Amino acid sequence: MVNLAGKVALVTGASRGVGKGIAVGLGEAGATVYVTGRTRVAGASPGKMGGTIYAAAEAVTQAGGVGLAAPCDHTDDAQTRSLFARIQQEQGRLDILVNNVWGGYEHFYDGVTEFWREQGFWDTPFDRWDKMFTSGVRAHFTASALAAPIMIAQRSGLIVNVSYFAAQRDDKGVAYGAAKAADDHMVRCMAHELRPHQVAVVTLYPGLVRTESVLAAAEFFDMHNSESPEFQGRAVAALAADPAILAKSGQVQVSAQVALDYGFTDVDGRQPRPLSVAEA
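RE: above sequence
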């Protein structure tokens, strides 16, 4: 079991889904984890999928870490700055930042957008591009820019951007593919600038994750090689505990391959097979 006792982590967009799973996985390793999100009341999220930052923070504590709920809308720079000031004041350090917050999925549940009728990018609502780049790419940049001075002063730290294979494919939607590709390239550029300061930056590609939304539509997915949200957290924990993590800085890490490399399994004992770009 990885030991991250004494380490401080921040996971953005962690009320539910992959973000919550990563937070819990880091808690399992003993870390203190700040859990951010906008959902404070169960059922109040746009997708009505349940989950709150408080429940996620409690799950971190139950897993063996210290979970701390931190309400934050990462599209608001003032709130994001206040969050990092709080972490600096309360902990005096930040060892792990996981940029998981994202936007642009509202078309699945807003009751207005008939996304299934879209033929291509030419009839996609323009604001989907804005939401994916503002709530996703820009929010990842902003959090990383605020984390970097803390980590540079420590001469240690790991920044993880949660992305997906869509960054390397042409058939996953123009806005989504472009946003994920931008996120991946941002990691490479950040890694270049932070390497002299002993701070690593990587991209993490999950496989098919059994999030609340995926389980709600399980009939449409082949779940035989799926992964739990907590599996993503175990991957981040393993990377964070690697003393040679700088050798991987700037690279894409596939969660299932990370599990094989570091010798851990999913929470149910299974060993998911790493997907290729062509399969994803």
